[in-house]
Specification:
By secondary structure, this protein is α/β, with parallel strands linked by helices. It has two domains: 32-194, Cytidine Deaminase, domain 2 (3-Layer(aba) Sandwich); 197-248, no CATH class. The protein has helices at 3-24, 36-48, 86-98, 103-106, 123-133, 181-191, 200-210, 215-228, 232-243, and strands at 32-34, 54-59, 66-71, 75-77, 82-84, 109-114, 138-145, 150-156, 162-165, 168-170, 192-194. The strands form two sheets. Strands 9-8-7-6-2-3-1-10 form an eight-stranded mixed beta sheet. Strands 5-4-11 form a three-stranded mixed beta sheet. It binds zinc ion. Zinc ion (ZN) binds next to β6.
């Protein structure tokens, strides 16, 4: 055997070995990707009010973990929860099917924001994820906190089943659309109904501009009245959320506890 032949054999052997190794190695770790447009819209919704907001990720057909659009439906939101309107969800699904999409492209990725600094899912989030998405082959729960931290978990019910926390990326590599703040604003207005006790922050600011002397007092009374009407477990959620939000504890806000 000539040296050249030996070399060729060696090369073939190493290619074969490489292929075998490739075969047995685990699949690449899944990553949740958002188009810059979907990401920008999510940030806009997160920062437009004081409450959590939620919606669905719409993906391309070829990559079910790449979110091209973020879509909201009618919902009631508090600082610690989001509740979708059933009929609105049904309408959203119907519209998506009419647009030629398959359920795995629009009904598997649940996104919501946290007004606090932690993207860690709450017990309510876990319950919702289990109840609403527990029967899907797979689903993703994604949370974006106020400070930009994210959490994404992929749950799959096929085969042995399991769950894995996956990384999140904004994907600039594919073509993406422009921002449309006017449309987002209208969508926010049409879909997000924040509980009345929650709006004290933004209303306080509006009042503050016109009636600086009475603003704090008015806001505190208004907020406490609304708080009184909540169910005990809702109150606890609110208190938990508030204690974890240091940005609410500026001097101006402390008046509500006096
Ligand atoms: Zn949450």
């Amino acid at each position: 055997m000539t040296q050249a032949m030996q070399k060729k054999d060696k090369t073939e052997e190493s290619i074969k070995k490489d292929q075998q190794e490739t075969k047995v190695s685990p699949p690449a770790k899944p990553v949740l990707r958002l188009s810059p447009t979907a990401w920008a819209k999510l940030l806009y919704f997160r920062d437009h009010g004081e409450s959590e907001i939620g919606g669905f990720g719409i993906t391309s057909q070829d990559d079910l973990l790449r979110i091209e659009e973020f879509a909201t439906v009618k919902q009631e939101a508090t600082m610690a929860s989001v509740s979708f309107d059933d009929e609105a969800v049904a309408d959203f699904f119907e519209t998506q099917v009419d647009a030629g999409r398959k359920p795995q492209q629009f009904a598997r990725i649940w996104l919501h924001t946290h007004p606090g600094d932690s993207p860690q899912p709450s017990s309510v989030d876990e319950e919702t994820f289990r109840r609403v998405f527990g029967k899907c082959d797979w689903a993703v729960m994604f949370v974006l906190a106020r400070n930009g931290k994210t959490y994404a978990r992929l749950r799959f019910n096929v085969g042995p089943g399991g769950e894995v926390v996956i990384p999140v990326e904004v994907d600039y590599a594919c073509p993406f659309g422009s921002s449309d703040r006017e449309a987002w604003k209208s969508e926010y207005k049409a879909n997000i109904k924040a509980d009345s006790w929650l709006t004290f922050g933004s209303r306080r600011n509006e009042r503050f501009e016109s009636e600086p002397e009475t603003a704090d007092l008015w806001a505190a009374d208004d907020w406490l009245d609304a708080f009184e009407t909540l169910e005990p477990d809702q109150r606890q959620l609110v208190l938990d959320e508030i204690t974890s939000r240091s940005d609410l504890w500026d001097q101006e806000s402390e008046v509500m506890w006096i």
